[in-house]
Q: What sequence folds into this?
């Protein structure tokens, strides 16, 4: 998303400083806003009568996963995506550096992901505005594809390695 915003900022030029200011204001906020809205959807699902009936019949408690959260942009706090996404029934996987940084200076707000939801919703809705023009669905699809690829390649590599090891053991 950061790349899309930077791309839009380059494309608008200096004669539209209001647009540039607006784009600058949303940088680094979209992922958190999207996660907060996803959490609201999750809360609706696990709070539904349908889920409650499933739980009464032994369905396992569900949790929302924030996977590999770390801050890539050095202009932001190194615990930004941890501090902002803490909430009930969530799991957050993090690189070691992020875990250590959070232990050192992270802030625990047990309901952080439930705060400022209306602001998050308004922010996501503003992406289609004329002065922003970012297709969140397209960005999410691209991120999904990249994310899948980041898991598939190592998995395929692991399978090949295991197959190789099995062939070595079978021939001895």
A:
């Amino acid at each position: 998303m950061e790349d899309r915003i930077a791309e839009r900022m380059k494309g608008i030029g200096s004669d539209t400083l209001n647009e540039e200011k607006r784009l600058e204001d949303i940088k680094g906020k979209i992922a958190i806003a999207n996660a907060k809205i996803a959490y609201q959807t999750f809360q609706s699902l696990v709070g539904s009568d349908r889920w409650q009936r499933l739980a009464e019949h032994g369905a396992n408690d569900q949790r929302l996963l924030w996977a590999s959260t770390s801050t890539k942009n050095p202009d932001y706090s190194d615990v930004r995506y941890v501090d902002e996404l803490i909430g009930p029934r969530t799991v957050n996987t993090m690189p070691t550096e992020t875990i250590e940084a959070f232990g050192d200076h992270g802030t625990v707000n047990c309901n952080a992901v439930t705060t400022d939801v209306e602001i998050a919703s308004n922010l996501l809705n503003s992406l289609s505005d004329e002065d922003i023009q970012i297709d969140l669905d397209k960005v999410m699809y691209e991120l999904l594809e990249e994310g899948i690829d980041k898991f598939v390649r190592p998995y395929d590599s692991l399978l090949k390695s295991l197959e190789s090891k099995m062939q070595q053991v079978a021939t001895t």
In short: The mean pLDDT is 88. The chain has one domain: 2-134.
